[in-house]
Amino acid sequence: MSTRDRRLAPDEILSVPMLDLRSEYSLLEEEISAAVLEVLRSGSFVDGPEVDALEAEMAAFLDVPHAVACSSGTDALRLALMATGIGAGDEVITTAFTFIATASAIVETGATPVFVDVDPRSWTLDPEQVAAAIGPRTRAILPVHLYGQPADMNSLRALSRKHRLVLIEDSAQAFGASLRGELKHLAAGACGDFGCFSLYPSKNLGGYGNAGLVVTHSRDSAQRLRALRNHGSHQRYQHELLGINSRMDEIQAAVLRIKLRHLERANRERRNIAAQYTAQLAGSAVTTPSANVYGRHVYNQYTILCRRRDALMQCLQDRSIPCAIHYPRPLHQQPALQGSFAARALPVTERLASQCLSLPIYPQMPSPFIQAVTSAILDFSSRKPSMP
Ligand SMILES: *Cc1c(COP(=O)(O)O)cnc(C)c1O
After folding, report:
1. Over the stretch 294-325, which tens digit does the pLDDT of each residue have?
2. For ligand 1, what atom is nearest to the CA of residue 102?
3. For site-directed labelling of 152, which of 29, 87, 94, 192 has its Cα 20 to 30 A away?
């Protein structure tokens, strides 16, 4: 019997996890343990044959000519920005409804993030707002495929072409997502000049530690990325550029090669769980996420909106059902970024930040867990809101 079909004891239902990396490991234990042991025996631990093989396999999977491994999603963004030469005096248009790394990578180069609002349906960068924000200093557009939902890359690519801007995708949450329409068959991350992925354990394709990846269509850019991740050197002790240390570990590459073979199944399971959530939550007090607005959504997070979000969160916590807010404070309101950009109001972003709530989702999540979550939300919905 698969884990999904097995009956759960009542106390087991009370222990729904937000994410279950152990159940996934137990599924792949033999394969992964053997691969890790082989690395240990090889004596080659950084940037060796496993990394080379992983890069080739990821390039094939994403259908891009060049994939460059690095040590985190944050570094993937830093390396892509460094490879374009973006720096002081330049502006990069991006979203404030994302993880801090999207903007800190920009600020670190010396450039200025220009935050514009998101589309109320996809919760990703709104191309009309982007168009309105393009000015003489704009050098790049940096959309985020938030929660695994691809941004409107057709429009953003047209804008970047028209204004000769670099298009960098933050695909940290969207390994395996893909675009529809004009950009048919393109993977999220493969539409722009650079696609940046995080391979952190909780992402769709997660290693057992930190890891990241940059993909590009340009041979020159790929060469620069390879130098930049290794202190700016192609040849040992020759440094034409100033780079960073962002090499990938062989152990991570070995784990990721195995996980990559199971990614399609894992993403199908995530999509299946999301469909169950959406069906079971129809008619409740919450707004379920729009599915596949511009392409295939891979649900790194299943995030709902609720006007009484904090009360709902309390109600779920009372039943030991975990949930999380991604993200409670948009980036234009983060203290660490104050002074590094020009302030402007972002009404859609601010509303989403006050109403969003992510529910547990992971590939092997059993159906009774899904039901335990949705029945708690349905109970909450049928209760009258208490008067303030
Ligand atoms: C996780 C994440 C990152 C950073 O990736 P790390 O591997 O943790 O450095 C960047 N952007 C977004 C949107 C993310 O979710």
Report:
1. 999 999 999 999 999 999 999 999 999 999 99
2. 11
3. 87
E strands of the chain, at which residues? 66-70, 91-95, 112-116, 138-142, 166-170, 178-179, 194-198, 212-216, 295-296, 302-305, 356-359
Q: Using a 6 Å cutoff on CB, does residue 170 contact ligand 1?
A: yes
- Report the alpha-carbon distance of residue 93 to residue 112 in Å, rounded: 9
Which atom of ligand 1 is least distant from the CA of 211? 7
Question: How far away, in angstroms, is 170 Cα from ligand 1 center?
Answer: 8
Ligand 1 centre from 81 Cα, in Å?
Answer: 15
**Dist. CA 77 → ligand 1 center (Å):** 9
The mean pLDDT of 76-105, rounded to a whole number, is 98
CA distance readout (Å), 98 to 102, 104, 163, 227 = 7, 11, 25, 29
* 3 — pLDDT class (breaks 50, 70, 90): very low
Nearest to 150 by CA among 131, 124, 183: 124
3-state DSSP assignment of residue 158: helix
